[in-house]
Design a protein that fits this description.
Blueprint (H helix, E strand, L loop, with lengths): L3 H7 L5 H14 L5 H16 L4 H9 L7 H17 L3 H18 L2 H14 L4 H14 L3 H4 L1 H15 L3 H18 L2 H22 L1
Helix pairs in contact: 2-3, 3-4, 3-5, 4-5, 5-6, 5-7, 6-7, 7-8, 8-10, 10-11, 11-12
């Protein structure tokens, strides 16, 4: 199973074409990767392609991965298939895939991937956003791995923006402060920056509403 830190080094989420190129290089001449790791890399290649709007090409890569692949590969296939469904406008189908990913990752103890699935469910299943987020937060807080605990920055931040959309800026501010706390503890410089910006924006909104 690939360490998420390894994937972090390959990913450039704001430049999916560059990420695609990196994953292709690793699959063609990188490594050494075992078969399971190569299949995991293929799911990330599919994700990078999907982020460019090439949904059929991305889906074809995932469909080509054997059904008898390692369980962790199966979880990643479900996750990336779900993301393709989200981006192509099929949130209901995506939610089903993310639920399956959460269940399968729980069975194999892949906590990082389980949190990923729950965080995606919180996005696509808006009536249960708080429930899915709460489950993800519990898992992340219980983790001893700092990279996994970094999910708490995203989880609290996403919940904050959800509460902003719901018109509850005070509750949103609580989430943004918590996101900033975790960013300071285990986050990146970029995460520290945007969590502080979210606090400033939310504080300004609260002040404006009280004028």
């Amino acid at each position: 199973m690939l360490d998420q830190v390894v994937l972090d080094e390959l990913w450039m989420f704001d430049e999916p074409a560059a990420s695609e190129a990196r994953f292709r290089v690793e699959l063609e001449s990188g490594g050494p990767w075992d078969e399971t790791e190569r299949q995991e890399l293929t799911t990330q290649l599919a994700r990078a392609i999907g982020l460019q709007g090439k949904f059929d090409e991305a889906a074809s890569l995932l469909l080509a991965i054997p059904d008898d692949a390692a369980p962790v590969v199966g979880v990643r296939v479900l996750l990336e298939s779900g993301r393709i469904m989200v981006d192509s406008g099929h949130p209901d189908v995506a939610a089903q895939l993310f639920r399956k990913a959460a269940e399968a990752s729980t069975l194999i103890g892949a906590e990082f991937l389980c949190i990923d699935a729950l965080h995606m469910l919180a996005i696509v299943d808006s009536p249960r956003t708080e429930d899915w987020t709460e489950q993800a937060v519990e898992l992340a807080e219980a983790s001893s791995n700092d990279r996994t605990r970094r999910w708490l920055v995203t989880l609290h931040s996403n919940l904050g923006w959800s509460r902003i959309e719901g018109g509850d800026a005070e509750a949103a501010l609580t989430e943004f402060v918590e996101a900033a706390r975790w960013a300071e503890l285990v986050g990146t410089d970029e995460e520290r920056q945007w969590t502080l910006e979210a606090i400033d924006e939310c504080t300004a909104a609260i002040a404006a509403s009280s004028d």
